[in-house]
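thread: overnight batch results

M.L. [08:02]
morning all. the overnight job finished for the chain we discussed friday. pasting input first so we're all looking at the same thing
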Amino acid sequence: MPADQSSSVRLVILDRDGVINEDREDFVRCPADWVPIKGSLRAIERLNRRGILVAIATNQSGLARGMFALNDLDAIHQALARELSELGGHVDGIFVCPHGPSEGCDCRKPRPGLLIQAGQTLGVRAEDTVFVGDRDTDLRAAEAAGIQPILVRTGHGKSVVERALERGIVVADDLSSAIEGILCACDLE
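M.L. [08:03]
and the structure it wrote out:
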């Protein structure tokens, strides 16, 4: 993270599948499908301890496709909140795009709608925000919102590393490493 932006990080927005939890080709459809990536929940708790807000911004086209219902999605997020709470952590907001890829909404990444909504809802400016994702669509959404993107190699991230590096985007092994980098940069200020 550039030193000129590090001390002002007040909000970290996270993609969900492939960043916080294991991604699945057949979608995360119920709490039993939701498996956190090692260290991801502890990384969120570390941000909480430092007073940095944490939000999730996630495309969930499985809703539009009828693969799961809203109550299933709520149950998944309750499971996430429960496991995170056991570590002393929490998420300050979850922002979901329920639309399919062809619906043309403003909230589906790579469009910036979800990220803008998260910042506005939590009262944090784009320049004080970082977005961590594992897909090119995540990176493009962050750039379109004026938010610094960080790519993780988990999920689909490995396939995006070269393009991210060519664009000068920070790449981390996983969410834990990304958060470590953010917190270390903040400490340097």
